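G., the chain you wanted modeled:
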Amino acid sequence: MGGFVRKTPGGRWRGVVKSGRVQVASRTFDRKRDAHSWVRREEARLDGGYDPSAGNVRLRDLIDPWLVARRRTVAAKTVATDAELLRLVGEAPLGKIFVGDVEPRHLARWYQWLLSQGSASGAGTKGLSHSSVQRYRASLSSLMAWAVVERYVLTNPVPAAKAPRSQEPAREMRPLTEAELVRLVSSIAAARKPTWADVIEVAGWLGPRWGELRAFIVADLELENPLPGIRVQRSQSEGGEVKATKSYETRRVPVPDHLRSALQRFADGKRPQDLLITGPEGGQLWRTDLIRGSNFTAASGGRRLHDLRHTAACIWLARGVAPGSVQSWLGHESIATTNRYLHYLGTDADALGLAALNRPQPGGPRTALERLDGGSRAAPGHPERDSASDAR
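Predicted structure as tokens:
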């Protein structure tokens, strides 16, 4: 096995790795030392080992080549967010550390730096929120995972260093009950906004994310199937391109009978590849148009459109759908996410406990005062109590 570096006619440097007389890999670099470093790593990989000197690269210097590889695998919006590491790591002490020396303690200090002064504006006067720190921790973990693949390091240290948790209460979900959803849809329809009423009814019963609702096409609807349903296989955020769903998987959500007419109205007169759920003029959905056109905020009691997704989940569970099915219909990767709705509604144990609390006790006391009286004092008007009072 052998490897070498040669200069190309264009002035760059090409690293070549060979096994015997067979060339197994080559890559071109702008700098000679980068080409030599790559050759050493590849030779170590062929030997089934690891070259410790490969980690002698400052963490901030790995971000640019990682972003180049990243652009081929994720959406442009994700790359734009990941590119913030150029500043958030480069300006912090973490960026000066060799990638092979990064430990969880360094990451913990970086999280605190982000919370104290790593503002997204770059002004350095205000720290990031806990949720932003979590997001950039995920970006850094992707960077380190790439570094493992490229043989700069053996392991990714990020999973071992948890980001600090926020002490602020989580934003509460506010799903509608089934009766509230019916009243909301009826009120919007009565205000002569039938299309917006249909949109809200579909969202409140099928539970798609907003981008998924916008990206449904007619071909996704399967009303003639023995089990009517709709396929959720793409998403399109406002101003973005059509992409895969958040879980990168296709899922199928059953369509209840009472929703068939609304979906059929959306599909009538359209071709299979046309958008299914559209506005009153036939155009693609826009959040502001729906909220203003239906007076959604006031009519729903101040709820968000995303609460319609929560509404669907709670209706399904209240109707007795198994949590595993709800997880599948919502596209949750983990059942723990679905369990949030169980905690919101109350578990079977809660129902049994409440039934026990409400169950009348034959001949027993019904209030705390009666319980005290029954245990140590006679009932009002009883001769024993009257005589005790007279004695006092």
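Residues 58 and 119 are 23 Å apart (CA to CA).

Shout if anything looks off.
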